[in-house]
Amino acid sequence: MIAAEYQSGLDCNVLVLNKHYMAIRIIGVRRAFSLLCRQLAEVISFEQGQYSNYDFQSWCEVSQFRRSFEPKAYDWVSTVNFYVAVPRIIRLLFYDRLPRSEVQLNRRNIFARDRNCCQYCGKKFATSELSIDHVIPRSTGGKSVWENMVCACVNCNVRKGGRTPQQANMKLILKPVKPKRNPIIHLHLGYERYQSWKQFLDHAYWSVELK
Question: What is the pLDDT of residue 9?
């Protein structure tokens, strides 16, 4: 059984590709290792500007070498006898499903699109301190669509009430739009550990499904 050396090891995320090297979702480390151990997937590793493929046994062997020479370059989990580097990308060997073409409209994705910033005062807040505001209130026919929903802090939401921004003498910082790909990806790409994902995410027509 795999246990954490540091809590962050098992808290990492892994990008999943189908067998055609198209990104389809993001999963946790435990799920990734389960797929690798059952030989349902292989590791895709970015090394010196190129991507290399490893089955689970080979990845374990490579991990021992890297543990000795570049331990700070990876996140780690430990088994009873050895350490294994957390893979950043895995590729499913028997799955050719195409990625989703639509970004799901939900609270989490709206917060991610707006980067947890109130779209009226511009301040950043914890998720628990934010709400969803309908720019054109539902009471006056406003719809629950990407272009009519924004993050708002409690104070701004109360101040705006059931009015439009113009009626409340308030101004939107950014015009709300539907994202072309899942906005949570941008949050991950802000971390150096996930930069190897970028090549597989540079296609504006698709979004990654989160499981």
Answer: 77
